[in-house]
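Input structure tokens:
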């Protein structure tokens, strides 16, 4: 079933920059969808509208069939710069989304530890962001998003800042989390290779104004254990 639906979405910046033109899409639970297209076609705009961080000029976003206006706990936006607190440990950073929501300390630390483990950072709980590589910081950002138990994880070019080897590992983590945790991922990318490797579905946007040019379902055997 569709966890996210967007209907008749238009986004105009200022008076004349039409970034999105009449986008209709559904995103299925447990699927990984890539938004693919050339620079400036509106991928980030679409992702931020789905996240509730940006208002569409017209049209609507539905979460589990209900219209939403703004952010909500079912959707977590994983920021490109990871937005970690440099003065806080990995554990506190990963638990921060829960801290904001007022979860008790024991509960939020339990959940944070579970997801730190899930993203392959067990043993790094007491480190600080500057002691980690870029790829590891990115995993902390993902652990934080997972710890708040959002169903939908929204990621803008999540692999752009890391080297090839880290990228592959991180991609395999996402594929596994999608299967094990039944999380829904929506990723922005401009790499067709990456999109084909990772995705259940690829939404191809046309150059500005962004319209849905094509929807593809790559069917490849990834052999990820
Ligand atoms: P993409 O993520 O595909 O590169 P964006 O969603 O960032 O595309 O941008 C789509 C279009 O909207 C581009 O032409 C961009 O310059 C324009 N745009 C994005 N954000 C703003 C903004 N805050 N104000 C004005 N124009 C913007
Ligand atoms: P990316 O390429 O990573 O999607 P950009 O460098 O296009 O990001 O945009 C960075 C920020 O600047 C975004 O928040 C976007 O909304 C904003 N932005 C992009 N294009 C414009 C524009 N033409 N006018 C004003 N803000 C813009």
């Amino acid at each position: 079933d569709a966890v996210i639906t967007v209907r008749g979405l238009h986004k105009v910046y200022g008076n004349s920059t039409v970034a999105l033109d009449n986008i209709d899409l559904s995103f299925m639970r447990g699927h990984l969808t890539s938004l693919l297209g050339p620079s400036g076609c509106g991928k980030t705009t679409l992702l931020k509208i789905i996240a509730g961080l940006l208002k569409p000029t017209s049209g609507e976003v539905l979460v589990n069939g209900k219209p939403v206006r703004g952010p909500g706990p079912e959707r977590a936006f994983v920021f490109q710069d990871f937005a970690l607190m440099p003065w806080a440990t990995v554990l506190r950073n990963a638990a921060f989304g829960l801290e904001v929501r007022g979860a008790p300390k024991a509960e939020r630390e339990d959940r944070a530890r579970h997801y730190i483990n899930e993203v392959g950072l067990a043993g790094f709980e007491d480190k600080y962001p500057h002691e980690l590589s870029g790829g590891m910081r990115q995993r902390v950002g993902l652990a934080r998003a997972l710890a708040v138990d959002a169903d939908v994880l929204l990621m803008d070019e999540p692999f752009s800042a890391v080297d090839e080897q880290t990228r592959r590992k991180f991609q395999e983590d996402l594929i596994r989390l999608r299967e094990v945790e039944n999380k829904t991922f929506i990723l922005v990318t401009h790499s067709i290779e990456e999109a084909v490797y990772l995705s259940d579905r690829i939404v191809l946007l046309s150059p500005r104004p962004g319209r849905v040019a094509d929807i593809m379902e790559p069917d490849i055997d990834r052999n990820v254990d």
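The two ends are 26 Å apart (CA to CA). The chain has six helices and ten strands.
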